[in-house]
From TrEMBL:
Pfam families: AIRS, AIRS_C. This is Hydrogenase expression/formation protein HypE. Residues 160-311 form the PurM-like C-terminal domain. Belongs to the HypE family. InterPro entries: HypE, PurM-like_C_dom, PurM-like_C_sf, PurM-like_N, PurM-like_N_sf. Residues 38-146 form the PurM-like N-terminal domain. Gene3D superfamilies: PurM-like C-terminal domain, PurM-like, N-terminal domain. The lineage of its organism: Bacteria, Pseudomonadati, Thermodesulfobacteriota, Desulfovibrionia, Desulfovibrionales.
């Protein structure tokens, strides 16, 4: 193959077949994908969770991952937030002509490794190559499907007054990492994306607890925006305790310099768990037993005081509203 991606690789002819066989099947191949049918044959039944997402992150390589691993993590996590075991994903690559073949191989290899670690198989895919300038390097679309194993499934409209609001770890890591890498910023301490598949931890959580009302990953728009979505759907109020919010010192410092609010920065390896207060200690025990939940803590409570609002309680006892993010604080973070 050439050392750069050529338009020929999207032609459907011999060049396309070489790209598929020598690269994609090398890292993503399995019994179903290797058949190269027009569609995958899957044996699934019962209640299913399905999610689709597109990844356009800039830059495509960043500390803690790249667009290939991120595409798997993002879709696997979305399916798992429904109390489901992710089983299969599809992937579609839209590649700019001229992308270095070494870059593409690193991305596909990272996707294969992330899928293996998450325990999902890539069962179908597509590759398109477009002229230089038609896209920015590479875009990836993924769809995931899995078996829902709890009834009722966690849902964004199921939060109740009195529920505990838990977070699995520090917030803002991914968003600040992407900005720092994109702009070539040199922070005093290394900042790294938290991109990871959370499904194995989430399965332990829903299987170990009698009731989980909401599971959500606070990606675009960050923690504050995601909580606004939940309070609006559930018609409850979320009171956050500012002193309990887990934010790394380096993220606080970077945000202070850049004028950003870490509560609105994206996360790609954290999740919110909202459940009855009486189950909070058990949930935290399960979360902290896993490396991906080692920093889990309770950050607030759901109330009926101001339905649809998110209220931040400051260390001095004051209160301020955290509104929904109006625009994109930082575009192309996933």
């Amino acid at each position: 193959m050439s050392d750069k991606v050529l338009l020929d690789y999207g032609s459907g002819g011999r060049a396309s077949q070489r790209l598929i066989s020598e690269l994609f099947l090398k890292y993503l191949g399995n019994d179903e994908l290797n058949r190269l049918n027009d569609a995958a044959e899957l044996a699934m039944s019962g209640r299913l969770a399905m999610s689709t997402d597109s990844f356009v992150v800039d830059p495509i390589f960043f500390p803690g991952g790249n667009i290939g691993s991120l595409a798997v993590h993002g879709t696997v996590n979305d399916v798992a937030m429904m109390g489901a075991i992710p089983r299969h994903i599809t992937c579609a690559y839209i590649i700019e002509e001229g992308l270095p073949m070494d870059d593409l191989e690193q991305i596909v290899a990272a996707m294969g490794k992330a899928a293996e670690e998450a325990g999902v198989t890539v069962v179908s895919g597509d590759t398109k190559v477009v002229p230089k300038g038609a896209v920015d390097k590479i875009f990836i679309n993924t769809t995931g499907i899995g078996d829902i194993i709890v009834d009722p499934a966690p849902s964004g409209d199921a939060a109740k007054p009195g529920d505990a609001v838990l977070i699995s770890g520090t917030v803002g890591d991914h968003g600040l990492t992407i900005l720092g890498t994109r702009e070539g910023l040199d922070f005093e301490a290394r900042v790294e994306s938290d991109s990871a598949s959370l499904n194995h931890l989430l399965i332990k959580l829903v299987e170990g607890l009698p009731e989980v009302h909401v599971l959500r990953d606070p990606t675009r728009g960050g923690l504050a925006t995601t909580l606004n979505e939940i309070t609006s759907s559930s018609n409850v109020c979320c009171e956050l305790i500012e002193s309990d919010l887990p934010i790394k010192a380096e993220v606080k410092g970077g945000c202070s310099i850049l004028g950003l609010d870490p509560l609105y920065l994206a996360n790609e390896g954290k999740f919110l768990c909202i459940l009855p207060q009486e189950h909070a200690d058990k949930a935290l025990e399960i979360m902290r037993a896993d490396p991906l939940g080692a920093g889990a803590c309770q950050i607030g409570t759901m109330t009926d005081a101001n339905p649809g609002k998110v209220v931040l309680v400051t260390p001095l006892g004051g209160k301020r509203l955290l509104g929904m993010l109006e625009g994109e604080q930082l575009p192309r973070i996933c």
